[in-house]
Amino acid sequence: MEQRDLVIIGAGPAGLTAAIYGRRAGLSTLVIEKGVFGGAICVTDEIENWPGVKHATGPELGDMFRDHAESLKTEFMEAEVKSIKENGDSKIVVTDKGEIEAKALIVATGASFRKLGCPGEAEFTGKGVSYCATCDGAFFEDLEIAVIGGGNTAVEEACYLTQFASKVYIVHRRDKFRADQVAVDRALANPKIQPVWDSVVEEIAGDGMVEKVVLKNVKTGEISEIPVSGVFMFVGNTPNAELVKDILETEKGGWVKTDEKMASSMKGLFVAGDLRSKSLRQVVTAASDGAIAAMSSYEYIAEHF
Description:
Layout: E1 2-9, H1 13-24, E2 29-33, H2 58-71, E3 75-78, E4 81-87, E5 90-95, E6 98-107, E7 111-113, E8 129-130, H3 133-136, E9 144-148, H4 152-161, E10 167-171, H5 181-188, E11 193-196, E12 199-206, E13 210-217, E14 223-227, E15 230-233, E16 237-239, E17 269-271, H6 283-304
Parallel strand pairs: 1-2, 1-6, 2-3, 6-17, 8-15, 9-10, 9-15, 10-11
Antiparallel strand pairs: 4-5, 5-6, 7-16, 12-13, 13-14
Helix pairs in contact: 1-2, 1-6, 4-5
């Protein structure tokens, strides 16, 4: 069985930062990722709040993280992790390509866009319903679309989508956006963007492809329709906790509970990034988590091995 000092599951900002700090601490470090190296930021068009970088695309920043980790001779494996087992003070990571023993383990599997769950959402996914503006925006050239949500992601991606769409409705259940004021000001100043306040989606409808959204005003109960060719969902995140939900202590919503050192309820297993229960999920907080988790792993290994 292969052995490493530190195994990291997930190659987003948290996992790659943990790899950088783990290697700098002299730990043999393996990062396992089943999807895109760089994580969820790779489907984000613009990042303007990473300190020291005024503007970068998500893929650019993701590449910077991986390049940095690679420069320190971090090992990478493309594989799916099936389970985690305890083996004394160490952990056994079971993947579809074999088992690896780790003296310390960091889980940084992040979060995914939440589904709204309204009628028509599943039926029209890939047929007008999307969760990725950078992936699908270009398909809606000169068409009218709706963005659902009111946080940073919804407002920022709505601005991005105006590069393609002729009009972008932002449907939000409240009477003001929750996004940062800079993002809100930019959106409200864009002539292609029209907010639809106090409204929720009752149904997404069409004949083969999306043709309209049916809305309900939460204050008046009034039902209305907006003819659109696309609906982009940005209504929050759900933790990618399937791997650990039965072995670690979680909080409401399935977010994993940790202490300030990123330690989970299982000794020697640390959790970093958006998977954690915390108040702010941003690239900078994920990176911070990764750094702390790596150094906590170093301390754990020094104490137990």
